[in-house]
């Protein structure tokens, strides 16, 4: 079952004929990405012993997936699947500026200039 994201389309580049390390699986890379994003650790602190590959590998895969709109397609597929089974609870939904631009964005107030220079005596001892 495809859920709106074609399984025949892949975000993976064609394998290189060179010898070297095998490509880290998408599942392992996703696990590493989610671990970094959830815990807030630095990419370079992601341990390869967890089976997620290196932090740099996961960061590159995240970058590649962002450029290929994988997250947008995944979000649309999840929404489609949830609508299909009536699983979106609209009474609990909210909209914020991260998903919908503000209609008042063009009418931001100007910065208020300072009234006068600070004339208080310095308390710094020389």
UniProtKB/TrEMBL annotation:
This is Transposase. It comes from Noviherbaspirillum pedocola. Residues 14-75 form the Insertion element IS402-like domain. InterPro entries: IS402-like_dom, Transposase_6_like. Residues 1-13 have a biased composition (Polar residues). The lineage of its organism: Bacteria, Pseudomonadati, Pseudomonadota, Betaproteobacteria, Burkholderiales. Residues 1-22 are annotated as: Disordered. It holds the Pfam family DUF4096. Transmembrane segments: none annotated.
């Amino acid at each position: 079952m495809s859920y709106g994201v074609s399984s025949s389309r892949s975000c993976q580049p064609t394998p290189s004929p060179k010898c070297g390390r095998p490509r880290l699986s998408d599942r392992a890379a996703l696990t590493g990405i989610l671990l970094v994003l959830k815990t807030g650790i630095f990419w370079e602190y992601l341990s390869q012993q967890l089976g997620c590959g290196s932090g740099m590998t996961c960061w590159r895969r995240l970058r590649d997936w962002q450029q290929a709109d994988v997250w947008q397609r995944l979000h649309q597929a999840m929404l489609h699947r949830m609508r299909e089974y009536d699983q979106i609870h609209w009474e609990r939904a909210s909209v914020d500026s991260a998903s919908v631009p503000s209609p008042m964005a063009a009418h931001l107030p100007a910065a208020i200039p300072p009234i006068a220079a600070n004339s208080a005596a310095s308390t710094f001892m020389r």
